[in-house]
Structure formats: structure tokens, C-alpha cells
Amino acid sequence: xxxxxxxxxxxxxxxxxxxxxxxxxxxxxxxxxxxxxxxxxxxxxxxxxxxxxxxxxxxxxxxxxxxxxxxxxxxxxxxxxxxxxxxxxxxxxxxxxxxxxxxxxxxxxxxxxxxxxxxxxxxxxxxxxxxxxxxxxxxxxxxxxxxxxxxxxxxxxxxxxxxxxxxxxxxxxxxxxxxxxxxxxxxxxxxxxxxxxxxxxxxxxxxxxxxxxxxxxxxxxxxxxxxxxxxxxxxxxxxxxxxxxxxxxxxxxxxxxxxxxxxx
Length: 264
Known about the structure:
Layout: E1 2-11, E2 19-29, E3 34-39, H1 45-53, E4 60-65, E5 68-69, H2 75-79, E6 82-85, H3 99-107, H4 121-132, H5 151-163, E7 169-173, H6 181-198, E8 202-205, H7 209-214, E9 218-223, E10 226-232, H8 233-237, H9 241-252, H10 259-263
Helix pairs in contact: 3-5, 5-6
């Protein structure tokens, strides 16, 4: 479903601020893979996700999605293939628009706009049913402005919007990092539920090693722009946080210095 072949990216090349963010990265996901990505600050996790999404152009290599080379496509051109949830709950929704209007926008992602009536009754019923499954009472607030929702409610709504029309690939960029522990746990449960229900191919960046181990069928670790560890299946299920820290030291030659990951 997704293949990165020898992908590299350097920011501010040739200057004192040069940063090699990705170095000859190779990654292959089959349909239905749920891959968690961990690593220290500056490891290249979010850069890898931004390369897939088309936020920045790659310097070298190719990115193939479902058999199509998307390496040169713009970010808007890739949007119809992807669902994405950001770290900031405010980024995935339009605060001044109603819940139903946000969902209608998401439903029309990648489709040709027409002069047909905005939101039909059938659509509203569908949205209410999908919102009911979140268990947050939002099905009763279809006409409420999204800006009135809490961070957790907005993130749950963003997750629903990202998957309303089944994407070829779902990108989750530390999507619970800005939430309190209880709300984060709720959003993670919803994530597992939605990914399993729709059998979505998923990439999830996280700083929480316990979540990285618990969720998905595969885990990769990044360090200084490279993928240094890739584990799946039964081996992943038997991992512990101690194993991950030890593996990081083995393959990187140093200790993990990331307070967010260690405290999690």
C-alpha cells in the first residue's frame, strides 16, 4: 500500500543550519498494516510523515501509494488519498463552522463540487450515526460550532473526518500528545476501533512507548533520519519498554535522551 524507496530530505542545505532530516529511508507497508513510529527529538518521525503527505518535496527517492508514484504530487493532490490527524486539535477542523458542515467537507474530499443542495437529510442521519459511535454525545450537537468543543472532542471529530471517506492511508502525527491522559486514552480507543472497523492502513507517530507497543501490528524506531529498528507480529507483542530502550542503545550507540518518551 505504501513504499518509500531511498527517500532523503535535507533542510537548509549548504548553510550553517543544514539538517539531514531523512537519510536513505526505505519502508514498505502492506494493506492493513498499522505501524507505530517512535524515536527521540529530531529523529525524523514527523518529517517522514510530512514527506508522505507532500508537505515538503523529497530530495531523492520515490514514494509509491497503492501502486501510484506520488513523489511529485502536490499536497492538495495527495489529500484525496490520505486521512490525517495532527498533534494540535485545532488544526483538523474549521472552528467557525458547524459540526455537520465540517463532516460534509470531509465527505467531499477529493470529489468534484457541484451546485447541489449543501447537506442532505440522508447525510445528516449518517453523520449522527457515526458521531453516536464515538460516545461523546456529539450526535445531538450537529449544528454547534466546532470551536465550542473541547480538545478531546475536536480530536475525536477530526479522526472521524479523516476516515469518513476511507483513505488509502491514515496518518496520525502524535494525535493524542496535546490531550490529558484520560482523554488521550479515549481517543486511542476510538482510533483502534475505527482502524479495525475499516481495516485502514495506518502510520502513527507517538512519543509514548507503551502505546507504540500496545497498538498496531508493527513498530519502527527512528534515529537521526534513519529507520534503525523494525519489528512486527509476535515479536512486537512480547516487547517491553525496557527492551525498546536496550535496543535503542544497541543500534544507536547511545542512550535515549527524550524526557517525553521516558516519562510516558
